[in-house]
Amino acid sequence: MIPLPLQHSVSLQRKPLRNRRQQLSERQLFFHLRAILHACRGRLTLCLLTGAVILAERMLRGNKPLMRQISGGFVQPVHRFLSVLTGHVRFSTAELLILTAALLLSAASIRLLVLLIRGPSRLDALIRYLSGVAAFVLSVYAGFCLLWGVYYYGDDFATKAGMEAREISIEELEVVTVYFAAQANQYAGLVPRDADGVCVLDRNAVLEKSKTLYHAVETNYPWLSGPEIRAKGWRFSKLLSLTDFTGFFFPFTAEANVNTDSPSAFFPATVAHELAHQRGVAKEQEANFCAVLASLEDGDPAYCYSACLLAYTHLSNALYSVNPGAWQLVSKGLDERVKADYRANRSYWARFETPVQKVSNTVYEDFLYSYDQELGLRSYGACVDLLVLHYEETAKAFFQS
Question: What is the DSSP code string of 105-174?
Fold first, then answer.
């Protein structure tokens, strides 16, 4: 028998050795991954459960009776309980929770970066981080779907109030716009102003008043009733301004949060708007209408003036789109003090026109679309219909007297 060359002999000896090493390495990797996933089983289970809640909410959106039952029988009682619970503290627990979550996420991200650069178990660190973030995000979103999203698919304010939608004529729009311009002019002289003629309100007094703001409308609109809980201002309100937010309702604590750095003249209307959300009015256009309604029914000069500015803003924008000439005449009739407040408002928000604000608006618009608010940010203008339907007769009587 002729012996094989030496190099072939060595090759035949090494090939099974490499296979054994490869198989050992793959086996070690498999068991290592299994150990990591086992250690993260709690987070992964939470991801599956919360994912199921999100999917169920999506699938049941068309079931209006069920959404109505969940909204009135579960979500509203929970919000009442939470609002009373968090109402015992003066500061916003929502702000505390959000800032704490942001700090923890930042710390976890920094720790991950260090482990990826210097740590021996990079894969372990990455999987733990990603599973933790996924579990947190899905849990928050599932809670949001359950404690807020269902409101969008129950009965809205117009349905509960028996306000039937109909086409609004240009003449009706003009009458109500002129009415709110006149009301804004009247209340402009009843609020305190600085040396430049700009409205300056005691924000603490406005927040304190917010506890009873909706009392006047609870008789005719009982679904707007709620506990006497004041809205809460954010300590870091400039962060809200940076993202173009004047306020928001936090469903996990049932708190109406407001930006205390934004222009004073529009502050009470923002408070009233967020309190409407606290009472289960989800849609932005309806919350704006409720803010105007509650403020004018209450009669407090600061709230009335701010509500008139809010109403006139939406009405005049709608009038400009259909009759610029009429809009110009109404605009010229505004009191100089009203014009001063509009200038101050534009000047304030111009300082925050940054890419951050644009991203924030895009994200929020996508959020509205995700809940079938097809007008996106423009859905705020839809409160015009409610204003005209409700105040048309009042406006006509005002001009006839």
Answer: HHHHHHHHHHHHHH-S-HHHHHHHHHHHHHHHHHHHHHHHHHHTGGGGGS--HHHHHT----PPPHHHHH
